[in-house]
Amino acid sequence: METNNSKADQQISLDRYLQSMKEIGYISLAEATNEDYERIGFKSGLEVHQQLLTKRKLFCRCPAGIFHKHNDYTAEVVRHMRPTLSEMGVYDGTALMEFRTRKEIVYRLNNKTACTYETDDTPPFKIDMEALEIALEISLLCKLNIVGEVHITRKQYLDGSIPTGFQRTAIIGIEGEIQLRNKKVGILQLSIEEDSCREVSDIGHVRIYKTDRLGMPLIETVTHPQLFTPWELAEAGNHIRFMNRSTGLVRTGIGAARQDVNVSCRGGARVEIKGVAHIAWIPKLSHIEAFRQYALLHLRDELNSRIPDYKLWKIESKELDPVEFGFNFPTNLPYTVPLSLIGVKLPNFAGALSHFTQPGRCFGNEITERLKVIACLERPNMVHSEEIEKDAICFNFHKLGKILNATPKDAMLVFWGPEADVKTALETIEERCIMAFEGIPLETRKGLPDGTTIFERVLPGADRMYPDTDSAPVAIEQQHIDVVTKRLATDLHLRIAQLQGWNVPESCWTFLLRHNLVVLVEKIASIGYPPKAVAILIAEHFKHLVTKKLATIEEANRIFDMLKLMQKQRLDFGLADDLLTAIFQNPSATFDEALLLCGYNVYRFEELSAMILPLVEEFGQIRRTINSENAVRWVMGKLRKAAKGNLPLSSLLPLVLPVVNHNLKPHQFTL
User: Fold this and answer.
1) Which residues 6+ apart lie within 8 Å of 437 measured at CB?
2) Residue closest to 343 by CA, chosen among 326, 320, 376
3) For residue 86, what pLDDT band results from cuts at 50, 70 and 90?
């Protein structure tokens, strides 16, 4: 294989990358301030998807919440998706993009979780009323205006994630708000809809799904774009998540809640980061996406200064002989047909491919990502003349430049794939380059754990929505709203104020709110225990047991049972953490056996008082210090085990201090 461009050429590309990053003023999330987000015009909103805890799916009578492994299926159904005209007589852009991919969609169905409705062979049943009532309750928590009638609509899904090609969805409420710490954020709407399939694989032109999750009820809560820093965005995400969980009527666990994060910068466009599973990822993902757009606007201005009339701009390409270039196709590609090698010239694009977009990524990545999604060319699928990675695939661009008559003002790339995909690939490359002249493409992106994103599909438009003629409207009566209003959970901002009033450390809030355990703290406090101590016991000690898989969140109520028995036997709260561990480490032990296992012994106040003087004298014999604080700390530590469960350790402190001061003299210590 012939060598790539020289190290000097690659260093030039890296220098361009670093220079463009400097020109846009990119800084890391840790370094960023509110002023930085004001500078780039950061603006964002959320779409929070939350599965509901129902017995059945939304529009059929299959059970909800039963999942199976990838290879556990009864039958397969194969489909090819095609776009249809909307009610306005136009095609949705996403549908057209998906159609170009020529995907074969394979569905793996299990009899336990799927029926003929999922394959569009049976009309929908009436919407599940249990799900509708939960959606209504959460809508009221968001202070939304409830619709008089629920109208089911169809939303096209041509990526194959729903076998019918559309998702049934309905708006429940509009124009509400949530209260964050320092501001209110508007809620645009809350909808109820059916969940999509889970993807098994997506290789080449074949995408495989399983249908266990398909049709499960979920709600989508959409905020207005009123979040102006990544931290506000994460706070709103947590607020909605905790609010949903406060009802006790939603599913929890991996995949039960997903966030679509909408981000833009000043002069940019709404880009949707799809299906973010962890709210902790949101700040970095949104930070990097806003700066990606800011960087693309910088590139736009640079390209337009070179080529004022970009509408006449075109790429040039030529099929190459791999042998002539000493090029070996990557060995990890899944193709079973011969591959073509295509060289492409991008006129006047010198420096553009190495322009910074995200940390460790440049504009060249924008092209290779679209080749994977639209032309179905598995990565690695291309290499370009401005690679910034040291381990990039080698190619002799000096020779290619002569073949394509390239000048120093031009950039070049080479891609490979089946002959049948070459035309789509060339169209995709040219489309993405022309978009660079225009600004920010409207697209959906997938978030990665490192905070960067990759292209997923063209952003859907309103053209994909139309009425569902198979479903009749469902009326929501005012008296029904009144009944649900009476049983609403406490507003989340009031829960937070409650935790503040109890002086619970802020480090405990997330665990308590995430698992709706403030109600348990209230319940235990109602029988006489201090809420702050109880909250810390749950959020720190019980959390540790859950992390170690000794306990589950569902077993939290055992804490109440334990404390009730401790109260009955007049045991001090100080024993609670050790006793809780003994109970969960020994599930079959009785309460009295757990007391023995945690080392509890009965001591009266007089017996504990009598231990103080001998302990002080022992300290005087073994320590080499005249610091009375150390003496008190050592003696109290020795008393702790005996005092636990009998009385608060703090009640012995007034007895220890005078004994230490009276009995420990400087001449007793060896200096």
Assistant:
1) 300, 303, 304, 307, 310, 313
2) 320
3) low
How confident is the model over 421-456, as pLDDT tens digits? 999 999 999 999 999 999 999 999 999 999 999 999
- 3-class secondary-structure state, position 146: strand
Task: For residue 146, give both structure tokens.
Answer: 């409830």
Quick check: 363 and 355 in contact, CB under 8 A?
yes
Question: How far is 107 from 441, CA to CA, in rounded Å?
Answer: 31
pLDDT(4) > 50: yes
Q: What are the backbone angles phi and psi of residue 634, rounded to the nearest 5°? A: -65, -45
Beta bridge partners of 149: 475
Give the residue from 474, 386, 352, 372 showing the smallest Cα distance to 415. 372
What tokens does 292 get? 């990606």
Give the span between the Cα atoms of 509 and 520, in whole angstroms. Answer: 13
pLDDT confidence tier of residue 671, bands split at 50, 70 and 90: very low
Taking Cα atoms as reference points, which of 434, 453, 304 lies closest to residue 373?
A: 453
Among 17-31, 75-89, 130-144, 147-161, the minimum mean pLDDT is found in 75-89
Give the residue among 635, 588, 592, 628 at the shortest CA–CA distance from 612: 635
Q: What H or E segment, with its residue span, contains residue 177?
A: strand 166-179
- Residues 450-486: b if buried by 16+ CB within 10 A, e if exposed: ebbbbbbbbbbeebbbbebeebeeeebeeeeeeebee
Beta-carbon-side half-sphere exposure of residue 637 (alpha carbons within 13 Å): 7
CA–CA gap between residue 166 and residue 102 (Å, rounded): 18
Average pLDDT rounded to a whole number, residues 113-128: 91
Predicted TM-score (pTM) of the model is 0.88
Does residue 235 surpass a pLDDT of 70?
A: yes
Cβ neighbourhood burial of 118 (10 Å; 0-12, 13-18, 19+): buried
Q: Across the strands, what pairs with 279? A: none
Tokens of 99: 């159609």
Task: Assess contact for 289 and 263: CB atoms under 8 A.
Answer: yes
- CA separation for the pair 84, 80 (Å, rounded): 13
Average pLDDT score over the chain? 90
| Residue 396 in tokens | 């002799």
Taking each helix axis from N to C terminus, what angle separates 518-525 and 557-568, rounded to the nearest 10 degrees?
A: 10
The predicted structure's pLDDT at residue 230: 98
Please, which residues have CB within 8 angstroms of residue 93's CB and are 6 or more apart in sequence?
442, 458, 459, 460, 461, 463
The pairs formed by 399-404 with CB atoms below 8 angstroms and a separation of 24 or more are 399/2, 399/325, 400/320, 400/325, 400/343, 403/318, 403/320, 403/343, 404/316, 404/318, 404/343, 404/344, 404/345
318-368: pLDDT as tens digits: 999 999 999 999 988 999 999 999 999 999 999 999 999 999 999 999 999
